[in-house]
Amino acid sequence: MKGIFKAVSVAVAAMSLVACGGGGGGNVSTGGVFFTHEQLAEEFVRRVNVDVAGYDLQLVKTNTLQYDYIVVYDYTYGTYDAYWLGNYNPGENMYSYLTNYDAYFYYDLIPQGGNVYKDYYSGILSGQ
Q1: pLDDT tens, 66-106?
Q2: H or E stretch covering 78
Q3: CB atoms within 10 A of CB 5
Q4: How far apart are CA 29 and CA 85, in angstroms?
Q5: Which of 36, 39, 69, 82: disulfide with 106, CB 3.0–4.6 Å?
Q6: Does a structural domain hold residue 11?
Q7: Cα–Cα distance between 58 and 120 in angstroms, integer?
Q8: What are phi and psi of 39, to 5 degrees?
Q9: Does 121 fall in a domain?
Q10: How far apart are CA 9 and CA 116, in angstroms?
């Protein structure tokens, strides 16, 4: 029984490593213009700061250990946070995106050094 559990655990860990390839994708706006992940990250942070009251974000990491995530510094709360841009399309309502995908975001990340940030609750690392 232990051997089966160990084999399954190793397989799950291997799949997790493959799934966490890092970096970022890109996305297409409703106007059909392609954005690189870096451009998408910059536009996301700019739009959040302009369109949603109470946000003062600065982009810290564009490419992270987690695919389609960025790390920002939130001046309002003095925290590092990771936002998932996987379904973000430039031009969409920012308040709606932040509300609809809140479960995909990580807040209050702990700096680990070397430009790596850790979510206290899940243990997930962002940065690289």
Answers
A1: 899 999 999 999 999 999 999 999 989 999 999 999 999 99
A2: none
A3: 9
A4: 13
A5: 82
A6: no
A7: 21
A8: -65, -40
A9: yes
A10: 25
